[in-house]
Amino acid sequence: MTILLSPGPVPVLEEIAKAQTKEMITHRSDEFSALYRDLVTRLRGYFGAEEAYVITGSGALGLETLALNLCERNDRVLCLPNGEFGDHLVTTVQVYAQPLPHRGADGSGWDLERTKAKIDASDAKVLAMVYNETSMGVRNHIKEICRYAKSKGMLTIIDGISAWPGTEFDMKAFHVDAFVTGSQKGIAAPPGMALIGLSKEAVERFSKRDSIPSYYCDLRRHKKRYEKDQQTPNTPAISLFWALQKAFDVLDRQGGLPACVKRHADAAAYTRKRLTAMGFPLIAEKGFESNTVTGFVCRDGEQAKRIKSTLAKEYGIKIVGSRGTFKDTGLRIAHMGNFDMKNIEKCLDAIEKIMK
Ligand SMILES: Cc1ncc(COP(=O)(O)O)c(C=O)c1O
Questions:
Q1: Which one of 191, 219, 253 terminates a domain?
Q2: Does ligand 1 lie within 6 Å of residue 9's CB atom?
Q3: For residues 242 and 191, what is the distance between their CA atoms, to the nearest angstrom?
Q4: Ligand 1 geometric centre to CA of 51 (Å)
Protein backbone atom coordinates (compact mmCIF):
# COMPACT_ATOMS: atom_id res chain seq x y z
CA MET A 1 0.00 0.00 0.00
CA THR A 2 1.19 3.51 -0.79
CA ILE A 3 2.21 5.72 2.10
CA LEU A 4 0.54 8.99 1.17
CA LEU A 5 2.32 12.03 2.62
CA SER A 6 0.67 14.73 0.50
CA PRO A 7 -0.81 17.85 2.14
CA GLY A 8 -4.38 16.77 1.35
CA PRO A 9 -6.10 14.59 0.60
CA VAL A 10 -4.56 12.70 3.48
CA PRO A 11 -5.09 9.01 4.33
CA VAL A 12 -8.49 8.26 5.86
CA LEU A 13 -8.71 5.87 8.84
CA GLU A 14 -10.81 2.80 8.20
CA GLU A 15 -13.41 3.70 10.83
CA ILE A 16 -13.89 7.11 9.18
CA ALA A 17 -14.08 5.61 5.68
CA LYS A 18 -16.56 2.98 6.89
CA ALA A 19 -18.88 5.57 8.39
CA GLN A 20 -19.76 6.56 4.81
CA THR A 21 -21.33 3.19 4.13
CA LYS A 22 -24.23 3.61 6.55
CA GLU A 23 -27.66 3.09 5.10
CA MET A 24 -28.76 6.15 3.11
CA ILE A 25 -31.21 8.57 4.70
CA THR A 26 -33.02 11.57 3.28
CA HIS A 27 -31.79 15.01 4.20
CA ARG A 28 -35.38 15.90 5.06
CA SER A 29 -35.49 13.61 8.08
CA ASP A 30 -35.08 13.91 11.83
CA GLU A 31 -32.08 11.62 11.58
CA PHE A 32 -30.32 14.03 9.23
CA SER A 33 -31.24 16.99 11.45
CA ALA A 34 -29.61 15.21 14.39
CA LEU A 35 -26.47 14.53 12.35
CA TYR A 36 -26.13 18.08 11.04
CA ARG A 37 -26.97 19.61 14.42
CA ASP A 38 -24.16 17.55 15.94
CA LEU A 39 -21.65 18.63 13.26
CA VAL A 40 -22.58 22.30 13.53
CA THR A 41 -22.58 22.31 17.34
CA ARG A 42 -19.18 20.66 17.48
CA LEU A 43 -17.74 22.94 14.80
CA ARG A 44 -18.94 26.02 16.69
CA GLY A 45 -17.11 24.72 19.73
CA TYR A 46 -13.91 23.78 17.88
CA PHE A 47 -13.73 27.11 16.04
CA GLY A 48 -15.13 29.34 18.80
CA ALA A 49 -17.62 30.50 16.17
CA GLU A 50 -20.99 32.19 16.48
CA GLU A 51 -22.29 30.14 13.56
CA ALA A 52 -20.86 27.26 11.52
CA TYR A 53 -21.96 25.47 8.37
CA VAL A 54 -20.79 22.54 6.28
CA ILE A 55 -20.92 23.25 2.55
CA THR A 56 -20.84 20.32 0.15
CA GLY A 57 -17.92 21.15 -2.11
CA SER A 58 -14.17 21.55 -1.79
CA GLY A 59 -12.30 24.06 0.33
CA ALA A 60 -12.23 26.60 -2.48
CA LEU A 61 -16.04 26.66 -2.55
CA GLY A 62 -16.04 27.42 1.17
CA LEU A 63 -13.60 30.27 0.63
CA GLU A 64 -15.67 31.60 -2.25
CA THR A 65 -18.75 31.37 -0.02
CA LEU A 66 -17.06 33.61 2.54
CA ALA A 67 -15.92 36.12 -0.10
CA LEU A 68 -19.26 36.43 -1.85
CA ASN A 69 -21.30 36.71 1.35
CA LEU A 70 -19.02 39.12 3.16
CA CYS A 71 -17.52 41.35 0.44
CA GLU A 72 -19.53 43.68 -1.77
CA ARG A 73 -18.55 44.74 -5.28
CA ASN A 74 -16.94 48.06 -4.25
CA ASP A 75 -15.36 46.82 -1.04
CA ARG A 76 -11.59 47.00 -0.98
CA VAL A 77 -10.04 43.84 0.42
CA LEU A 78 -6.46 43.83 1.67
CA CYS A 79 -4.83 40.53 0.67
CA LEU A 80 -1.43 39.25 1.74
CA PRO A 81 -0.48 36.37 -0.54
CA ASN A 82 2.87 34.60 -0.15
CA GLY A 83 2.35 31.55 -2.29
CA GLU A 84 0.01 29.84 -4.71
CA PHE A 85 -3.01 29.63 -2.40
CA GLY A 86 -2.67 33.26 -1.39
CA ASP A 87 -2.69 34.09 -5.10
CA HIS A 88 -5.85 31.99 -5.58
CA LEU A 89 -7.46 33.89 -2.72
CA VAL A 90 -6.78 37.17 -4.55
CA THR A 91 -8.35 35.70 -7.72
CA THR A 92 -11.41 34.60 -5.73
CA VAL A 93 -11.85 38.02 -4.13
CA GLN A 94 -11.44 39.65 -7.55
CA VAL A 95 -14.65 37.99 -8.75
CA TYR A 96 -16.75 39.70 -6.06
CA ALA A 97 -14.84 42.76 -4.78
CA GLN A 98 -11.68 44.86 -5.16
CA PRO A 99 -8.56 43.08 -3.91
CA LEU A 100 -5.55 45.13 -2.79
CA PRO A 101 -2.77 42.53 -2.85
CA HIS A 102 0.70 42.87 -1.34
CA ARG A 103 2.72 39.87 -2.49
CA GLY A 104 5.27 38.38 -0.10
CA ALA A 105 8.11 36.31 -1.53
CA ASP A 106 7.66 32.54 -1.75
CA GLY A 107 8.87 31.04 1.53
CA SER A 108 8.60 34.29 3.49
CA GLY A 109 5.96 34.78 6.17
CA TRP A 110 3.64 37.59 7.15
CA ASP A 111 3.77 38.92 10.69
CA LEU A 112 2.42 42.07 12.29
CA GLU A 113 5.63 44.04 11.84
CA ARG A 114 5.48 43.49 8.08
CA THR A 115 1.78 44.17 7.72
CA LYS A 116 1.07 47.02 10.15
CA ALA A 117 1.98 49.82 7.73
CA LYS A 118 0.00 48.15 4.95
CA ILE A 119 -3.07 47.96 7.17
CA ASP A 120 -2.57 51.58 8.27
CA ALA A 121 -2.16 52.84 4.71
CA SER A 122 -5.17 51.03 3.31
CA ASP A 123 -8.82 52.02 3.35
CA ALA A 124 -9.83 48.36 2.94
CA LYS A 125 -12.93 47.17 4.73
CA VAL A 126 -11.79 43.57 4.78
CA LEU A 127 -8.54 41.65 5.32
CA ALA A 128 -8.32 38.26 3.61
CA MET A 129 -5.33 35.93 3.90
CA VAL A 130 -4.13 32.36 4.19
CA TYR A 131 -3.16 30.96 7.60
CA ASN A 132 -1.03 28.07 6.38
CA GLU A 133 0.42 28.57 2.86
CA THR A 134 0.42 24.94 1.83
CA SER A 135 2.51 25.39 -1.30
CA MET A 136 5.51 26.53 0.79
CA GLY A 137 4.86 25.12 4.25
CA VAL A 138 4.63 28.62 5.70
CA ARG A 139 2.48 29.63 8.68
CA ASN A 140 1.49 33.28 8.70
CA HIS A 141 1.06 35.01 12.07
CA ILE A 142 -2.64 35.65 11.65
CA LYS A 143 -3.39 36.06 15.36
CA GLU A 144 -1.44 39.28 15.72
CA ILE A 145 -2.33 40.52 12.22
CA CYS A 146 -6.07 39.95 12.66
CA ARG A 147 -6.11 41.52 16.11
CA TYR A 148 -4.59 44.67 14.63
CA ALA A 149 -6.81 44.66 11.54
CA LYS A 150 -9.90 44.38 13.75
CA SER A 151 -8.69 47.25 15.91
CA LYS A 152 -8.77 49.28 12.67
CA GLY A 153 -12.35 48.22 11.99
CA MET A 154 -11.67 45.59 9.33
CA LEU A 155 -13.53 42.32 8.89
CA THR A 156 -11.10 39.39 8.80
CA ILE A 157 -11.43 36.38 6.48
CA ILE A 158 -8.98 33.49 6.88
CA ASP A 159 -8.28 30.55 4.60
CA GLY A 160 -7.39 27.95 7.20
CA ILE A 161 -7.86 25.07 4.79
CA SER A 162 -4.54 23.34 5.46
CA ALA A 163 -4.04 24.70 8.99
CA TRP A 164 -6.90 23.23 11.01
CA PRO A 165 -7.00 21.31 13.35
CA GLY A 166 -3.23 20.84 13.43
CA THR A 167 -2.46 24.49 14.14
CA GLU A 168 -3.56 26.60 17.11
CA PHE A 169 -6.80 28.43 16.34
CA ASP A 170 -9.81 30.02 17.99
CA MET A 171 -11.89 32.60 16.18
CA LYS A 172 -12.43 34.81 19.21
CA ALA A 173 -8.85 34.72 20.49
CA PHE A 174 -7.55 35.24 16.93
CA HIS A 175 -10.05 38.02 16.07
CA VAL A 176 -11.16 36.16 12.96
CA ASP A 177 -14.61 36.82 11.51
CA ALA A 178 -14.77 34.10 8.87
CA PHE A 179 -12.79 30.88 8.62
CA VAL A 180 -12.75 27.88 6.32
CA THR A 181 -11.10 24.50 6.27
CA GLY A 182 -11.42 21.48 3.99
CA SER A 183 -12.45 17.97 5.01
CA GLN A 184 -9.54 16.30 3.18
CA LYS A 185 -6.89 18.15 5.19
CA GLY A 186 -6.12 17.95 8.90
CA ILE A 187 -9.46 16.58 10.04
CA ALA A 188 -8.66 13.65 7.73
CA ALA A 189 -12.10 12.88 6.32
CA PRO A 190 -12.61 12.27 2.60
CA PRO A 191 -12.59 15.31 0.27
CA GLY A 192 -15.83 17.10 -0.55
CA MET A 193 -16.80 19.28 2.40
CA ALA A 194 -15.90 22.86 3.34
CA LEU A 195 -16.27 23.66 7.03
CA ILE A 196 -16.92 27.30 7.72
CA GLY A 197 -17.06 29.35 10.90
CA LEU A 198 -18.47 32.87 11.30
CA SER A 199 -18.33 35.54 14.00
CA LYS A 200 -21.35 37.54 15.17
CA GLU A 201 -20.18 40.48 13.03
CA ALA A 202 -19.87 38.29 9.93
CA VAL A 203 -23.36 36.86 10.49
CA GLU A 204 -24.77 40.37 10.84
CA ARG A 205 -23.01 41.45 7.68
CA PHE A 206 -24.40 38.78 5.36
CA SER A 207 -27.81 38.74 7.08
CA LYS A 208 -28.52 42.38 6.32
CA ARG A 209 -27.60 42.23 2.63
CA ASP A 210 -30.43 42.61 0.10
CA SER A 211 -28.81 40.43 -2.50
CA ILE A 212 -25.95 37.97 -2.59
CA PRO A 213 -24.37 36.94 -5.91
CA SER A 214 -24.98 33.20 -5.53
CA TYR A 215 -27.88 30.86 -4.98
CA TYR A 216 -26.15 27.71 -3.67
CA CYS A 217 -23.66 29.60 -1.49
CA ASP A 218 -26.03 32.26 -0.15
CA LEU A 219 -25.48 31.92 3.60
CA ARG A 220 -28.85 33.51 4.29
CA ARG A 221 -30.41 30.34 2.88
CA HIS A 222 -28.11 28.11 4.95
CA LYS A 223 -28.89 30.08 8.12
CA LYS A 224 -32.64 30.12 7.49
CA ARG A 225 -32.82 26.37 6.86
CA TYR A 226 -30.62 25.55 9.83
CA GLU A 227 -32.78 27.68 12.12
CA LYS A 228 -35.93 26.00 10.80
CA ASP A 229 -35.00 22.34 11.25
CA GLN A 230 -31.19 21.99 11.34
CA GLN A 231 -31.05 20.92 7.72
CA THR A 232 -29.22 22.20 4.64
CA PRO A 233 -30.94 24.14 1.84
CA ASN A 234 -29.93 21.61 -0.84
CA THR A 235 -29.07 17.92 -0.81
CA PRO A 236 -25.74 17.58 1.01
CA ALA A 237 -23.17 14.79 0.63
CA ILE A 238 -24.85 12.81 3.41
CA SER A 239 -22.35 9.93 3.36
CA LEU A 240 -19.49 12.37 3.78
CA PHE A 241 -21.29 14.01 6.68
CA TRP A 242 -21.31 10.64 8.51
CA ALA A 243 -17.58 10.39 7.86
CA LEU A 244 -17.03 13.89 9.23
CA GLN A 245 -18.92 13.01 12.39
CA LYS A 246 -16.63 10.01 12.86
CA ALA A 247 -13.56 12.18 12.20
CA PHE A 248 -14.74 14.52 14.98
CA ASP A 249 -15.13 11.46 17.28
CA VAL A 250 -11.53 10.50 16.51
CA LEU A 251 -10.32 14.05 17.19
CA ASP A 252 -12.10 14.07 20.57
CA ARG A 253 -10.93 10.58 21.46
CA GLN A 254 -7.32 11.55 20.80
CA GLY A 255 -7.49 14.41 23.28
CA GLY A 256 -9.19 17.15 21.24
CA LEU A 257 -7.62 20.23 19.71
CA PRO A 258 -4.68 20.80 22.12
CA ALA A 259 -3.44 17.21 21.67
CA CYS A 260 -3.94 17.46 17.91
CA VAL A 261 -1.93 20.70 17.66
CA LYS A 262 0.86 19.19 19.77
CA ARG A 263 0.99 16.01 17.68
CA HIS A 264 1.34 18.09 14.50
CA ALA A 265 3.88 20.50 16.02
CA ASP A 266 6.01 17.60 17.27
CA ALA A 267 5.95 15.86 13.87
CA ALA A 268 6.85 19.13 12.13
CA ALA A 269 9.77 19.78 14.50
CA TYR A 270 11.03 16.22 13.99
CA THR A 271 10.79 16.52 10.19
CA ARG A 272 12.64 19.84 10.17
CA LYS A 273 15.35 18.48 12.44
CA ARG A 274 15.98 15.44 10.25
CA LEU A 275 15.96 17.40 6.97
CA THR A 276 18.26 20.07 8.37
CA ALA A 277 20.66 17.39 9.64
CA MET A 278 20.77 16.01 6.08
CA GLY A 279 21.79 19.46 4.86
CA PHE A 280 18.54 20.55 3.18
CA PRO A 281 17.57 24.20 3.55
CA LEU A 282 13.90 24.61 4.52
CA ILE A 283 11.59 26.66 2.31
CA ALA A 284 9.86 28.41 5.22
CA GLU A 285 11.54 31.40 6.75
CA LYS A 286 12.55 30.79 10.37
CA GLY A 287 9.68 31.51 12.74
CA PHE A 288 7.04 30.84 10.08
CA GLU A 289 7.28 27.05 9.78
CA SER A 290 4.06 25.15 9.23
CA ASN A 291 2.76 22.53 11.65
CA THR A 292 1.18 20.46 8.88
CA VAL A 293 3.59 20.46 5.93
CA THR A 294 7.35 20.96 5.59
CA GLY A 295 8.96 22.18 2.38
CA PHE A 296 12.67 21.71 1.71
CA VAL A 297 15.03 22.67 -1.07
CA CYS A 298 17.10 20.17 -3.05
CA ARG A 299 20.45 20.92 -4.69
CA ASP A 300 18.80 21.10 -8.11
CA GLY A 301 15.77 19.89 -10.02
CA GLU A 302 17.46 16.59 -10.85
CA GLN A 303 17.99 15.74 -7.20
CA ALA A 304 14.39 16.65 -6.36
CA LYS A 305 13.10 14.44 -9.16
CA ARG A 306 15.32 11.56 -8.06
CA ILE A 307 14.21 11.74 -4.43
CA LYS A 308 10.53 11.95 -5.34
CA SER A 309 10.58 9.14 -7.87
CA THR A 310 12.80 6.80 -5.82
CA LEU A 311 10.55 7.29 -2.80
CA ALA A 312 7.57 6.33 -4.96
CA LYS A 313 9.13 3.42 -6.85
CA GLU A 314 11.32 1.79 -4.21
CA TYR A 315 9.56 2.70 -0.97
CA GLY A 316 5.94 3.24 -1.98
CA ILE A 317 6.03 6.71 -0.41
CA LYS A 318 4.25 9.56 -2.16
CA ILE A 319 5.39 13.11 -1.45
CA VAL A 320 4.75 16.19 -3.59
CA GLY A 321 6.77 19.03 -5.06
CA SER A 322 6.59 22.68 -4.12
CA ARG A 323 5.38 25.53 -6.36
CA GLY A 324 6.41 28.93 -7.66
CA THR A 325 10.06 29.75 -6.96
CA PHE A 326 10.59 26.22 -5.63
CA LYS A 327 8.65 24.44 -8.35
CA ASP A 328 11.63 22.43 -9.59
CA THR A 329 13.86 22.21 -6.53
CA GLY A 330 11.36 22.09 -3.66
CA LEU A 331 9.71 19.03 -2.13
CA ARG A 332 7.08 18.83 0.59
CA ILE A 333 6.42 16.22 3.27
CA ALA A 334 3.01 16.45 4.92
CA HIS A 335 2.49 15.52 8.56
CA MET A 336 -1.18 16.29 8.43
CA GLY A 337 -4.25 14.49 9.76
CA ASN A 338 -4.17 11.05 11.37
CA PHE A 339 -0.65 10.32 10.16
CA ASP A 340 1.41 7.52 11.58
CA MET A 341 4.71 8.88 12.91
CA LYS A 342 6.39 5.66 11.75
CA ASN A 343 5.61 6.63 8.16
CA ILE A 344 7.20 10.06 8.57
CA GLU A 345 10.29 8.35 10.00
CA LYS A 346 10.29 5.83 7.13
CA CYS A 347 10.16 8.65 4.61
CA LEU A 348 13.05 10.54 6.22
CA ASP A 349 15.11 7.36 6.59
CA ALA A 350 14.53 6.64 2.90
CA ILE A 351 15.59 10.15 1.86
CA GLU A 352 18.74 9.72 3.93
CA LYS A 353 19.49 6.46 2.11
CA ILE A 354 18.78 7.98 -1.32
CA MET A 355 21.18 10.80 -0.52
CA LYS A 356 23.96 8.30 0.23
C1 LIG B 1 -4.38 26.92 1.75
C2 LIG B 1 -5.30 26.31 0.74
N3 LIG B 1 -6.30 27.05 0.23
C4 LIG B 1 -7.15 26.55 -0.67
C5 LIG B 1 -7.03 25.26 -1.14
C6 LIG B 1 -8.01 24.73 -2.14
O7 LIG B 1 -8.77 23.74 -1.52
P8 LIG B 1 -9.62 22.69 -2.38
O9 LIG B 1 -8.68 22.02 -3.31
O10 LIG B 1 -10.22 21.81 -1.32
O11 LIG B 1 -10.65 23.47 -3.10
C12 LIG B 1 -5.99 24.45 -0.67
C13 LIG B 1 -5.79 23.10 -1.18
O14 LIG B 1 -4.74 22.51 -1.08
C15 LIG B 1 -5.11 24.99 0.30
O16 LIG B 1 -4.11 24.25 0.80
A1: 253
A2: no
A3: 13
A4: 22
